[in-house]
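[worker-b] picked up task from shared queue
[worker-b] task type: protein-ligand structure
[worker-b] ligand name resolved to flavin mononucleotide; SMILES cross-checked against name lookup, match
[worker-b] sequence length check passed
[worker-b] input payload:
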Amino acid sequence: MDFQELVAMRYSVRAYRPDPVSDADLAKVLEAARLAPTAANKQPFRLLAIRTAGRSEELQRIYHRPWFGAAPLLIGVCAVPSEGWVRKDGKNHADIDAAIVMDHIVMQATDLGLGTCWVCAFDVAAAREVLHLPEGVEPIAFTPLGRPADEAKPKVRKALADLLLEG
Ligand SMILES: Cc1cc2nc3c(=O)[nH]c(=O)nc-3n(C[C@H](O)[C@H](O)[C@H](O)COP(=O)(O)O)c2cc1C
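[worker-b] inference finished, payload out:
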C-alpha cells in the first residue's frame, strides 16, 4: 500500500472482532518492531505478545475498557532505560525508541488490515504485576491487535501552519 494511504487509513480502533490473527501476521508485526530504528542502535526495548483468551479479567486491571483484551492479541512495548542511549545532557532515549517501535507495530498492522489503538493511560503497577515484568523493564504502551469492528472517523488535526515553527 502507498505510504500516504496507509497513514490516512490508520485510526484508533476501539472495537474488535474475536477473529484470530494468524501467526504469519503476528510474525510480520513483530519483525517490523524488531527493525525499528533506535538511538545509537541500542535496541533498549522488549515486546509482549499476549494471547487474551481467558485473561480478560486480569487485563481489565491494566486498562479498564471493554475493548482492551477484546482482540485476540495484546501487544506491549517496554523500555529498558539501563540499555538506552543517553545524551550529554542526561536525556535517556529509551522511551522515544519504544514509541518508534510501537509506531512500526501500528503501521505494519494497518498494512495487514489489522486494527490497533495506542494505550498509554494504563495502570503501570497492575501491568507490572499481571505481566510479571522484571525490574528495569518499564511498560510504555500497549495496543490490541485484531480485526476492527468499528469504522474510522474523520481525522481532527491542527492545520500545518499551526505546527510549523520558524527556526
Ligand atoms: C502516545 C499515545 C497514547 C495514547 N493513549 C491512549 C489511551 O490510553 N487510550 C485511548 O483510548 N487512546 C489512546 N491514544 C489514541 C489517541 O487518542 C488517538 O491516536 C488520537 O485521538 C487521534 O485519533 P486517531 O488515532 O484515530 O487518528 C493514544 C495515542 C498516542 C499516540
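[worker-b] attaching auto-annotations
[worker-b] The chain is about 35% helix and 15% strand.
[worker-b] releasing lock
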